[in-house]
Every structure is written in C-alpha cells, then in structure tokens.
Amino acid sequence: MKKKILPISLIIVCLFLYMNLLSIQSDKYFQTVNAKTDRYVNPIGRTIGLKLYTNGVLVVGMSEVEDEDGKKYVPYKNSGIKEGDTIKEINGEEISNTESLINKVNNSKGKEIPVKYERYGETIYTQITPVKVGEGTYMLGLWVRDAAAGIGTLTYYEQATGKFATLGHGITDIDTGNLLNISNGELVTTQIVSIVKGVKGRAGEIRGTIDDGQKIGEIERNSQIGIYGKVTNLEFISSIKLPEVPVANRNEIKTGDAKIYCQVENEKVEEFNIKIKKIYKNSKDNKSMLIEITDENLINKTGGIIPGMSGTPIIQNNKFIGAITNVLLNSPTEGYAIFADMMME
C-alpha cells in the first residue's frame, strides 16, 4: 500500500492523566525544597485548551515507499532515523512544519539530501535519497507531525512574573510516548461539550472544543512537571483569577481536609472538598501526594478524577499546596498530585 507523509498541522491529543510513573531523565526539576517559597499565586481552576508546535517535525512512523513502477523501497533504511526523532533541517535549511518538509523533499528531484535530526538532545547528521512516487512527488517513507493540542486545567497565574502553569505533567506524543520538544504554543479558552464520568477500570473525560478559543497566553515550555508560559491577555486573566494566596512548602502540608477549584460546567469554577491521604515528602516526581475526592457533588458529576482535570489547584489552610496530576484507574475517586513548591521550581 502506498503511504504518504501526511501534512498534519494539528493533531488533537487527549491529555490523559498519567496512570504510570513518568520516566524522569533528570532530577533538576525535582530538588527537595526546605525553605519557604515566599511567593504568591492566583489559583485558576478553569478548563483551558493548549496548542503546541514542535521544534522541527517529529517522526511518528515509518513505511515502505512504492515508486512509479510499483517497486518498493525503504529510503530511510541506512539513515539511522527512528520513530521519536525530530527532523530539524533539510539541505541546511530549517524545517518548521510538515509542509516545509514536503516542499524540500519534492524540490530534491530525487537527489540525495542531507538531513539534520535530533534524538534526546543529540544532533545527528545523515543523508536520504527520496523515492519518486508520481509527477513532482517524492517520499522519504517517514510519517511526521508538527503540532498537538488538547484540554487541561489552568493551575495558577503569578502576577509578580506574569507567568502561568498548567497540568502538573508534560505532554507526550501519542504515538512515540516521548515528551514533545516544542518551539512555542498557545494557551486558549475552551468550551466544555460534555462530561464522561469515570468508573472503575475506565477513565472518564472532559470533552471540549478549542476551535474558536480566545488566546490567553504564550506557551514557552513543556516539561515533566507542567506546561509553562506567559499571560498575554491580562484583561481575561483578571476576570477569571481567584484571590491571591501564598505558596506552601511541602513541609507545611498536612494529611486531612483540603479543597480544589475545578470547572465542570461552562463559565463556572466551583470549590470541592478532597482529602490528602498520604504525603511523600521526598518525592522526585509528580506523584507527591495521594488524594481522594470526597465531595459528593463532584463525584456525581465526574465520578472522581478524570482526564481534563490535570492541573486542578489544591488549597489547604488558604495556601496553594499543589495540583492534581494522576488518577487511579481502579479507584477513580483517588489519584495523585504534585507539590506546589516542585511545580513552582
């Protein structure tokens, strides 16, 4: 079967709350914080949309190429390129999206082309000879992607820096499982379309649309502990932010009652009750606290913690202590949260 490089400009990726421990490549984000942060944030708790654009194009699949005569080739066979690699340059020219890749491959007229790509931060150079599959059309046999989008919950806005944070975990590519290496992105408003309740053994979901979303800010970083960026729409953020609270150090967090701010209806952020069941003070990942939803109103609406609630801010003793990140699939009222002091790092 003939397969083509798909000029995908936007792939909608459900931001599923992680059920498994993320593979942490570096501990630099997870240093234990013992001193008070002396920082203040405005909790948000509003469902938002995220549009992410990769730094180069991400290789998400590979296949044979059939030429004009029906012969099959594997152009990338000796190039060293694998799924999860990011193509940065063709013929010494920067690749910013799938369209630019397609154009440069077609312009090669079947001649060998130099390719620059990255794997886990390492830059690698190689060559590939495209295969002619039709008049003016050439293929590398690579399936690529240049963007992703999804829905989550905006955690906080820090007025002192103009910055925002959301999710409490990173966004990985749905095909490769790798953390997306982004060049930029947008934080936008979203409209909730429906709520699918979570039940034991099956995650629910907040379903929404971002097609007509209003831009809130610029996404600057996709990390293992969250999505970060700068607010550009100050008028909008001022209309939705909650009263400013201090950021708690993990040593101030106690087991017992706490509350979250969460949106499960359009234009309505509500306060719900939870319990902090366990605290892992030496945590180096985003499973820093074991929490339980105890509010019957929220349980009736969502079944507990569901995808789309990643980033929901947690407040205890009028301090920001963390954000929801994970759900326990076999116990949807329970899940994990990241420490505020870790997220602020």
Biggest sheet descriptor: 6 strands, antiparallel, barrel
**Whole-number tally of structural domains:** 2
Shape: elongated
Radius of gyration: 22 Å
Look at the helices and sheets and give the structural class.
Answer: mainly beta
Protein architecture, described:
It contains 4 helices and 23 strands. It folds into 2 domains: 214 residues, Beta Barrel (Thrombin, subunit H), CATH 2.40.10.120; 77 residues, Pdz3 Domain (Roll), CATH 2.30.42.10. The N terminus is likely disordered. Strand 18 and strand 19 form a beta hairpin. By secondary structure, the protein is mainly beta. A 6-stranded antiparallel beta barrel has the order 1-10-11-16-15-12. Strands 18-19-20-23-22-21 form a 6-stranded antiparallel β-barrel. A two-stranded antiparallel ribbon has the order 2-3.
Write the layout of secondary structure elements.
Blueprint: E1 40-62, E2 65-66, E3 72-73, E4 86-90, E5 93-94, H1 98-107, E6 113-119, E7 122-128, E8 131-134, E9 137-139, E10 142-158, E11 163-166, E12 182-189, E13 191-196, E14 205-209, E15 215-223, E16 226-231, H2 234-240, E17 245-246, E18 256-265, E19 268-279, E20 289-293, H3 296-302, E21 313-316, E22 319-328, E23 331-339, H4 340-344
